[in-house]
Amino acid sequence: MAILETKGLEKRFGGIVAAHDVSIAIEQGARHALIGPNGAGKTTVINLLTGVLKPTAGTIMLDGRDITALDPHQRVRLGMARTFQINQLFLDLTPLETIGLAVSERLGLGGDWWRLVGSKHEVTEEIVEIAERFRLADVMHVRTATLPYGKQRLLEIALAFACRPRVLLLDEPAAGVPEAERHELLATIAALPAEVTVLLIEHDMDLVFSFADRISVLVNGSLFVDGAPEDVARDPRVRAVYLGEEADA
Amino acid sequence: MLTIIFDGIAYGMLLFVLACGLSVTLGLMNFINLAHGAFAMAGGYCTVILVNRLGVPFALGLPMAFLVTAVLGGLFERTLYVHVYARPHLDQVLFTIGLVFMAVAATDYTMGSSQQFVQIPEALQGQYNVFGIGMGKYRLLIIVVCGLLTIALQLILSKTRFGSRLRAAVDDQRVARGLGINVGAVFGITFAFGSGLAGLGGALGAEILGLDPTFPLKYMIYFLIVVTVGGTSSITGPFLASILLGIGDVAGKYYVPKLGAFVIYTIMIVVLLWRPQGLFARSTAR
Amino acid sequence: MAAAGLVRPLDGAVTVMGALADDVSTYLKRRARWSPLEIAFWVFAFATIWLFPGKHLILTETAILALFALSLDLILGYAGIISLGQAAFFGFAGYFAGLVAKYGFIDEPVIALVVSGVAAAALGFLTSFLVLRGSDLTRLMVTLGVSLMLGELANRYSDITGGADGLQGVTIAPILGRFHFDMFGHTGYTYALIVLFVCFVIARRIVYSPFGLSLRAVKGNSLRASAIGIPIKWRLVAIYTASAFFAGIAGALLTQTTAFCSLDVLSLDRSADLLLVLIIGGTGYLYGGLIGAVIYKFLQDWVATLTPQYWQFWIGLVLVVIVLIGRQRFEGWIAGVRGAFAQLGTRQVTRPAALGSAAPDGH
Prior knowledge:
Oligomer: heterotrimer
Order of helices and strands of chain C: HHHHHHHHHHHHHHHH
CATH class of chain A: Alpha Beta
Helix content of chain C: over 70%
Radius of gyration of chain C: 23 Å
Shape of chain C: globular
CATH topology of chain C: ABC transporter involved in vitamin B12 uptake, BtuC
CATH topology of chain A: Rossmann fold
Number of helices of chain C: 16
Structural class of chain A: alpha/beta
Number of domains of chain C: 1
CATH superfamily of chain A: P-loop containing nucleotide triphosphate hydrolases
Strand order of the largest sheet of chain A: 7-8-9-4-10-11
Radius of gyration of chain A: 18 Å
Number of strands of chain C: 0
Largest sheet of chain A: 6 strands, mixed
CATH class of chain C: Mainly Alpha
Shape of chain A: globular
Largest interface: A-C, 69 and 61 residues
Largest sheet of chain C: none
Structural class of chain C: mainly alpha
């Protein structure tokens, strides 16, 4: 059963069609990659999926439930989380506080205005567990703004993960990460639990082909090809449109 | 009833002349200038001094108000405002409120706190009776002058090179700069012009709105309402908003005296709820 | 399918993690403890009751202003909402308290105080939806508009509010039936100070709670906040309502301690002065409003002896100068003060040594 499904998703900005008739079905537990040339509309699709943008047409179903009209925070509650292409973090907070926020919200404790932060043991335990998993334990108390980029990127993913999503949308997680810190990042992504469905937008073809079990190609807002990695890699049309342009990508 | 509409239009057009400078400033530089009313007040007092005390004819007093205030505006812009453009909105608010307080207190000190009246020439006192509508001569003058000004403004904006530079800069400052438009100079000139208009409006309006040191504080909200409801991306927006508010206010105060002032506030709140960017703004406004 | 890799740390590390979680808990709770400086502050504050017996009237005004500023700090410093209309809640509750006392609806002042606060909170709740939408300017407009509207209302219905003359004939019953308000303001000051302290404690809890942390997140990056499940709208409504409550308590306090209420409680002056107080004291650490209020009152007292009539001019000048100097630089000068009260919600970069060395690194 597809856990995340879109039917005829479309987004217009005035005269510009950023996404057209996008229909994707992602299976539970899949590792699905969305690739395409720059400006193809990949981030638009993620924004539509998460509710940051409202579609001009089409529907989005999460686990059989129509979520097209829901606000972003409501979708998170239903189990969908995302990372951003450019880090969107709380620069004045520490990773501890940041992850703690997501965990708190998820457990329904986020609105509590009388209890002191840190008094619920289940929350602090989970924060530590996540920090460990994402190799952030040593920088837990450092203000986010002063963290090195690689750590920030890890925090970006850790934060989405802290929402314990059923579907995780990663928007170019490796973007801007220096060579030295890539390995850590890629290993972390590879180590994500099998139950979590992952939709990955990436330009890094090594990552895509080593990680994905299914690839969709988006060109000029429309779905071009959708299939297993070997098939996509062999498809001459994809070669022409995308892989052939890799010289200037 | 028609007299009320007539009065309302006069009031609205006056509001427009007073507020359009503010609208352009906000749209152009995203700068919240709460001290705009102070320039209006300056124009009013300038005319009072010239006409009442120095015997300058009224017809000359008005343009003088414009000139003096425009120069004042230009000066302030170059020396003070220019430092605050890049600041967050809160700073701009604090800065301009500070200026207003200073202006109000200084005016109180130098001119006294009582209301001032401009000596209107004989020819403008009384009213015409046209088809049973009582048209105050002074209000008629306001409509004529403001109407001409509005047309002139629209022409400048749409027909002159300066106008197109201004419109470009309002639309997208960065791109305008990239095209070689000297946005700083455009803004300086516009600010001076807008302040001058405010001064002219203050002089014209002294008779109708009442001129005393608290003028900027009393009327600031009205200017802000015009700008918020009318949006900042055109001349027609604030114009229509002013007329709407002018008629609304006059009619409200006439038909429902106890709650008359609320008509304006209610309109503002309703509009803001319905369309946060203003009634006539582009949908992609900031 | 991706390689599983090392998904969970080995068993031995789990015990370490449990210990780590304890450390984190302790660290967080320790941060929320009252620092010695804070305790000293409040001890001194209460000591002023005995230290300055002749100054109780102006000290009461200061305490009320401090509470009022605290209310604005909650939305400005923690949630990032610019408001020129806090006076609306201040004045509304002020008149409310005056009227219930005058017509004997509620005799006991403490009850009346709380009820007035709740009334202001209700007003805050109703208007909060206006504040959520639109840009900074829209919010400014709406908040200003609401307070000016109330001012108009108070002016129009002068048969109820006393109009420009103010609310007459207000008598306040003794607090808890025992403590009479006296002419020198002794009871009044003690009362105001206790109320300020209680409200401060509540505000402090709010700020240190998960809710408070979420507000800081919303202020810092609202896009990400909603992306981790924070219902931004409701959080902002909540803090705006809470802020209205505190502002209302301050307004009601003013009426109760002076047995009078007039139109200036709803004026723009009041909202503007409040902004100045917070600029002086700094926002985002709760004590800014209190410290700013003390400095402001001190300045006002001093300048008033020089030029009583044109106080507004000097306020204006101070505002202009502060902005020109640059609030950042100005804040830098206050940063020292903030640092001393540092735990209260500002960035804190202390790394408990135990935690740093015990944490197992990635492989």
